Amino acid sequence: MKITILGSGAYGLALAKIIDENGYDVNLWTKVLNEYNVINNKEKDNSILNGFVLSRKMNITMDMQEAVYGAKIIFIATSIKYIDDILDELVLYYDKSMIICIACKGICDNELYLPYDLVVNKLKSKNVCVISGGTFAKDMIKDIPMALTVTSNDNENIVKKVLENKNLKIEVSSDIIGVELCGAIKNILAIGCGIIDGYGLPITSKCMYMSKVINELVLVISLLGGKKETILSYAGIGDIWLTCNSFNSRNYTLGYIIGSNKDKEEIDNYIESNTIEGLYTLNIFYNVINEKKINMNIINVLYKIIYQEGDIKLILEYLTK
After folding, report:
1. Conformation bin of residue 200: beta by default, left when phi > 0, alpha when psi is -120 to 50
2. How far apart are CA 186 and CA 178, in angstroms?
3. Exposure winner among 48, 61, 110, 234, fewest CB in 10 A?
4. Contact 245, 193 (CB under 8 A)
């Protein structure tokens, strides 16, 4: 069975390694010449994902038609901001028998367009699923226990079969909306967690923060059509905990820099040098919840701190309110 991965960043490479080791034929695709050249070097010191080596069974190409021809499953593993352009190219070669698996997280526009909806509408197919959960690419290529959630209307079991092995466990969910909302909003929450740690508050305060924001998120998921219990999944609390507690998360790291009262130039340099999904999602989600008159206090607080130059002490007011 041929599996194609669109996107050869760290997460795409981690998925490729797992799927290759599970015995499937893997095709990688990238539009970035530097990525193509680095991966083709076939060295362990890979600057994209250290330890990844292109195996003899894998192929990498910059040609979309070559990448998707004959594929049974196509994983989209790029940053959310590129998904629209990728779908515009993919639709030219897409066969409706192919399963699309979305491995990127976020919100696509100010109408709360989630990736699943965008893919279904662009490709005119419901042969679409989503994977999400608390995994870092650098850990996925190691032989250690970890887990993901897969959700779709019909194809979750075949994706589970392709990905699952003795270390990576896959749980199945029927809540596409809840899984995608958790995956998007956890990046925002991680910025707030970083601010708390950067400001020097103890873990007791961070525990309070986590409790408050998770309760707010559960309510929002329910109001937007998802299931409350999804917060208990690997895509929910698993992903939130991971992203809110590690410098491997660019969202958490940005928050830490802000909370540490670094000067604006240092903050701006970090933002310009890194893809920080939470910033993009915060701007969109702030507009969405205010338009829909949904109350999620942490979104308003973080928006004021980041986009309206509010004092970081607003996070203290949020905790004690």
Report:
1. left
2. 12
3. 110
4. yes
Distant-in-sequence, close-in-space partners of 57: CB < 8 Å, separation ≥ 6: 20, 25, 26
Read off φ and ψ for residue 217, nearest 5 degrees.
-65, -40
Same domain? 240 vs 152: no
Total count of domains within the chain = 2
> Is the CA virtual torsion 208, 287, 126, 57 positive or negative?
negative
The overall pTM is greater than 0.70: yes
Q: Are residues 222 and 160 located together in one domain of the fold?
A: no
pLDDT, tens only, 29-82:
999 999 999 999 887 788 999 999 999 889 999 999 999 999 999 999 998 889
pLDDT 10s digits, 99-139: 999 999 988 876 778 999 999 999 999 899 999 999 999 99
**What is the Cα Rg of the chain in Å?**
19
The answer to whether the CB of 260 falls within 8 A of the CB of 266 is no
- Where among 174, 205, 222 does a domain terminate? 174
Among 148, 174, 200, the domain boundary falls at 174
Q: Specify whether the CB–CB gap between 284 and 110 falls below 8 A.
A: yes
- Cα distances from 139 to residues 65, 145, 257, 293, in angstroms, run 31, 9, 24, 40
Rounded Cα gap, residues 161 and 129, in angstroms: 14
Q: Give residues with Cβ within 8 angstroms of 81, minimum separation 6.
A: 106, 275, 280
**165 and 113 within one domain:** yes
Residues 156 and 235 in one domain: no
Per this entry, what is the length of the chain?
321
Query: Residue 120: how many CB atoms within 10 A of its CB?
Result: 17
DSSP, collapsed to helix, strand or coil, labels residue 117 as helix
Range of the domain at 202: 178-320
Say yes or no: 241 and 282 in one domain: yes
CB atoms within 10 A of CB 12: 27
